[in-house]
Amino acid sequence: MLGLLKGMGVTLKNMTKKKVTYKYPDEPVKMPERFRGIQHFDPEKCIVCNQCARVCPTDCITLTGRKHPDPNKRGKIIDTYDINFEICILCDLCTEVCPTEAIVMTRNFELAAYSRDELFKDMEWLHDNNTKIRGGSQ
Fold first, then answer.
1. Domains of the chain: residue spans and CATH
2. Do 123 and 43 form a contact (C-beta atoms < 8 A)?
3. Which residues are annotated as a binding site?
4. Coil, helix or strand at residue 102
């Protein structure tokens, strides 16, 4: 009987406290300032140095490029940049080694999908990732 009274006391005490539950799908959750979400990729800044693919611990980044067709210009042109989010651990190493800051982390974290094939993202999707954030600006 004493246990029942203690349990009811805890229940009544917590009924008066402020609720901490979020209405997540209906109302977007405000993420902290330093939250690391899905990457944003800017192909105009990429110099195809391949450092992001080399430093990735899960080998989820694929990057290809070719020499510039104009012989007067130096450097490379990017052809493909793909990330497999099925194995990406969002460790932020790819953004740390990028010398031109072509890869940056966003506050977007909504990546749920019904198929594993949908978790393979290409350069166009990653470039548009900055605009897909619900409930706030970047």
1. 35-128 (3.30.70.3270)
2. yes
3. 46, 49, 52, 56, 88, 91, 94, 98
4. coil
Q: What is the pLDDT of residues 24-83, one digit of tens each?
A: 888 888 888 888 889 999 999 999 999 999 999 999 999 999 988 888 887 889 999 999
Question: Closest Cα to residue 65, out of 75, 77, 55?
Answer: 77
Q: What is the pTM of this model?
A: 0.75
- The identity of residue 36, as a single letter, is R
Q: Which of 48, 98, 51, 41 is closest to 68 using CA atoms?
A: 48
| Residues that constitute the known binding site for [4Fe-4S] cluster | 46, 49, 52, 56, 88, 91, 94, 98
